[in-house]
Amino acid sequence: MPEEFVVTPWEVRGQIDYDRLITEFGTERITSELLERLQRDAGELHPMLRRGIVYSHRDLNWILDEYEKGHPFALYTGRGPSSGIHVGHMLPWFFTKWLQERFRATLYFQITDDEKYLFRDFEELGEATKVGYENVLDIIAMGFDPKRTKIFLDTEYIHHLYPIAVEAAKRITFSTTQAVFGFENANNIGEIFYTSLQAAPAFLPSVDAGREIPVLIPCGIDQDPHFRIARDVAPRLGYPKPALIHNKLLPSLLGPGGKMSASVPESGIFTTDSLALAKRKVLNAFTGGRATVEEQRRLGANPYICSIFANYEFIFEPDDGHLAEVERTCKSGERLCGDCKLELWGKVESFLRRHQEARERAKARIEKFILRD
Amino acid sequence: MPEEFVVTPWEVRGQIDYDRLITEFGTERITSELLERLQRDAGELHPMLRRGIVYSHRDLNWILDEYEKGHPFALYTGRGPSSGIHVGHMLPWFFTKWLQERFRATLYFQITDDEKYLFRDFEELGEATKVGYENVLDIIAMGFDPKRTKIFLDTEYIHHLYPIAVEAAKRITFSTTQAVFGFENANNIGEIFYTSLQAAPAFLPSVDAGREIPVLIPCGIDQDPHFRIARDVAPRLGYPKPALIHNKLLPSLLGPGGKMSASVPESGIFTTDSLALAKRKVLNAFTGGRATVEEQRRLGANPYICSIFANYEFIFEPDDGHLAEVERTCKSGERLCGDCKLELWGKVESFLRRHQEARERAKARIEKFILRD
Question: How far apart are the first and last CA of chain A?
Fold first, then answer.
């Protein structure tokens, strides 16, 4: 019997059944045929594609049709700046960076400071904007191509976004937001309007170019509801429907039943964590191990519920051969959790050192990336 | 038994009972004590005040308290650009101009092109913006002081307005918009959000100055619902509540049961009407006259249902003595409707000639008035 779970743009709870989400949201699974096509067009497959972490889509075949006809697409993703960045937030960004490189795509990166204020994360709008700029450092530190990356905060780029948002808003009723997001009469009118702001960047490349530009949105599956609305209004506004490609959510370090979450600091590795703190989080993480060493040697452990194995699989072990070896030795009992954690920590440590250095350098590079009105 | 009537920001219908509106909206009548105070502070009373056309308010005593303490107030009014301007639209503008001169007040003039698009007056947002600029010519032609007048279109000044609107929106629920405007689940999410944009300029003077600036909003009583919401959220945002001063609505030239309306061209004199067309409208207007000349000479006519008399009273006859003479001779039967119309036409004609010339000159003066992001 499946456990109950909740996946909305603002709340993820319980053990997520990703197959059921495909059915409930009405998206399509990324098939082996589609993977072959991606391999052909991109020249390789990102590990998240090979491993089914990026697993669902809308209209990806259409985007590739256009690409193969010589019509390049733009990429659009975003960040709701409620806190510092943990590696779970970065999951779609790693993948987006790969798409940018492989398809030479211009990336529009929306920072939704208005959203995070409206949904009560902040008392002052300016606090959300400030956290937004902190997050921008992490985005730049990812290594996106400055010539092909346009980052903007809603409150700073609103002059460009608002007319598009108003066009969308005219075609979205309160009933629709009730059905899609579960809004009620007690929701504030900024929350209700907000989805039209998240739709706007999907149409911005076409507005900028003055002609139809296909847009692909890589995002966590939890953000899909917004773009169902954006896709619904697109043809009525004369814009192409944005295509989507969805990733699963990185599990919490604290164990099953939740994604890595900014409101639970111990649940994930944050980019600004000290090395000592990050190491402690890794060493204290929930695993699929047994109660005793003896038992684990005898029965083996379970990598499929293990937050450490998820970190290997989702991010930190690009080599499929070694990943398989980790999986095998975990299950056979050859590998003990302490050693496995230390091995992962080695990878996390070098990632964190590099990222933190890049993040420092990003402070001087912000103006190469930011769009303002 | 009073006829049924409807007064909302988007619809005015039926014979308006202005006394009942004071009760229903919860505003205050402008008393003779308040008129004396205005006379003292302004040095005179505008005819619309003397005649009870500007008849209702919220917190006007507080605004005068502040003024007398040496704290000047700002003025804020607006225009929803759905069409050309008729003299009914100009009613609050005449009065606002007088307030600006008498109280040396800075005026913020909002052109709500987004509103008019969202509420279905236009298929394209750009059409509303274009009509907005046509309307700005009429505003400038009124003779507002360019050093003290800031005109802005929502879509062009949104970078300044949006953060304030979002602050307000966070504190306004959908339930509130249902209660105040009668919105339903089928309303679009732009309509629902819009009231926060109409609230924003009430707080803009304080934001601009970095300290609390009292704001007085002269407007038709039909716009009061928006500002009930603005006043409700103001203290929670740390801004002073805007005060209001309300005028009655100029009746239609076609007779009782409606205000002058842009959707019924024959109902009012438009600033861009040719003199011939305007004259025809005046001569064809509904009056309080009798069926025959003989009957009118014998029984007199009724100025209180007469659209021509309303035009004398509301706008075109500043001299109370002559207005009283028009009223008396109408009621006594000395004055016949044809003559009365021709006399009014003389006043309307010279107003139109002057306004149309000033409107032409305004085309070169737009940049003295417009604020943009």
Answer: 52
Q: With an 8 Å Cβ cutoff, are A166 and B195 in contact?
A: no
Average pLDDT of the segment spanning B219-247? 96
Q: Which two tokens stand for residue A28?
A: 């399509």
For CATH 3.40.50.620, list the domain ranges present in chain B.
6-249
User: A-chain residues within 8 Å CB-CB of B114?
Assistant: 162, 166
Residues B332-355 have a mean pLDDT of 98
Answer yes or no: are the C-beta atoms of B212 and B206 closer than 8 Å.
yes
Q: CA of B167, closest CA in chain A: separation in Å?
A: 7
Residue B287 has pLDDT above 80, yes or no: yes
Q: Name the residue among A203, A216, A140 with its Cα closest to residue A168.
A: A203
**How many Å apart are CA A21 and CA A25, to the nearest integer?**
6
Overall average pLDDT of the B6-13 stretch: 87
The CATH 1.10.240.10 portion of chain B extends over 265-361
CATH class name, domain B265-361:
mainly alpha
CB contact under 8 A, A155 and B163: yes
For the domain made up of A6-249, the CATH class stated in words is alpha beta
Contacts of A177 in chain B (CB under 8 A): 189
B192 within 8 A of B164, measured Cβ to Cβ? no
Length of chain B: 373
Q: Which residue of A has its CA nearest to B174?
A: A185
Phi-psi region of A271 (alpha: psi -120 to 50; beta: other; left: phi over 0): alpha
CB distance A118–B169 less than 8 Å? yes
Position of tokens 């510092």?
A84
CA distance B356 to B364: 14
Alpha-carbon gap, residue B331 to B329, rounded angstroms: 5
- The strand ranges marked E within B287-335 are none
Chain B residues touching A173 at Cβ < 8 A: 185-189
How confident is the model at residue A153, as a pLDDT?
98
Contact across the interface for B189 and A188, Cβ inside 8 Å? no
Who among A166, A176, A195 is closest to B117 (CB)?
A166
Q: CA of B222, closest CA in chain A: separation in Å?
A: 22
The partner residue sitting opposite A186, judged by closest CB among B167, B173, B192, is: B173
Cβ B174–A158 below 8 Å, yes or no?
no
SS (H, E, C) chain A: CCCCCEEECCEEECCCCHHHHHHHHCCEECCHHHHHHHHHHHCCCCHHHHCCCEEEEECHHHHHHHHHCCCCCEEEEEECCCCCCEHHHHHHHHHHHHHHHHHCCCEEEEECHHHHHHCCCCCCHHHHHHHHHHHHHHHHHCCCCHHHEEEEECCCCHHHHHHHHHHHHCCCEHHHHHHHHCCCCCCEHHHHHHHHHHHHHHHHHHHHHCCCCCEEEEEEHHHHHHHHHHHHHHHHHCCCCCEEEEECCCECCCCCCCECCCCCHHHCCECCCCHHHHHHHHHCCCCCCCCCHHHHHHHCCCHHHCHHHHHHHHHHCCCHHHHHHHHHHHHHCCCCHHHHHHHHHHHHHHHHHHHHHHHHHHCCCHHHCECCC
Per-residue pLDDT, B31: 98
d(Cα A113, Cα B193) in Å, to the nearest integer?
17
Counting as low any pLDDT under 50, the low residues of chain A are 1
The 10 Å Cβ neighbour count of residue B8 is 14
Yes or no, beta carbons of A162 and B158 under 8 Å apart: yes
Q: Per the CB < 8 Å rule, is B159 touching A159?
A: yes
Taking CA atoms, A107 is separated from A72, A73, A139, A229, B220, in Å, by: 12, 9, 12, 21, 47
DSSP element (H, E) containing B7: strand B6-8
**Per-position b or e across B259-274, b if 16+ CB within 10 A of its CB:** bbbbeeeebbbbbbbe
- Report how far residue A250's alpha carbon sits from residue A259's, in angstroms, rounded to the nearest whole number: 6
